[in-house]
Amino acid sequence: MDTRCTLKKNSDFRRLYAKGKSVVTPYMVLYCRRNSLGVNRLGYTVSTKLGHAVVRNRVRRRLREICRLNSPAMKKGFDIVVVARSRCVGARYAKMNAAFLEACGTLGLLREDRA
Predict the structure, then answer these.
(1) pTM for this prediction
(2) Is it the case that residue 40 has pLDDT exceeding 60?
(3) Cα–Cα distances in Å, from 62 out to 11, 18, 65, 68?
(4) Of the four, 8, 15, 27, 52, which is 20 to 30 A from 35 by CA?
(5) Rounded distance between C-alpha atoms, residue 16 and residue 34, angstroms
């Protein structure tokens, strides 16, 4: 069974923004930092500038699904925050997925043994 660990505390988000590595793509910004837990903890940020609640929740659902499907290919033991950018609102899922994988590769989050 898949148990998801999420970041909820404001202090965790702020620590990642201040001390984590970041990569910017047209659709999102990824922040990551190693943790000592042995599991990945994910957090998502979608600003009110993107639109009303329905639009923000749609973007958040897409980002969560992208992270869920790509989690087997990722290394363990990282705190990751995904910040949605305005292009996420009308973007195609495949382009968002490609941008996420590119950002993970740049940050060194992808495992080498993935097929």
Answers:
(1) 0.89
(2) yes
(3) 25, 26, 5, 10
(4) 27
(5) 10
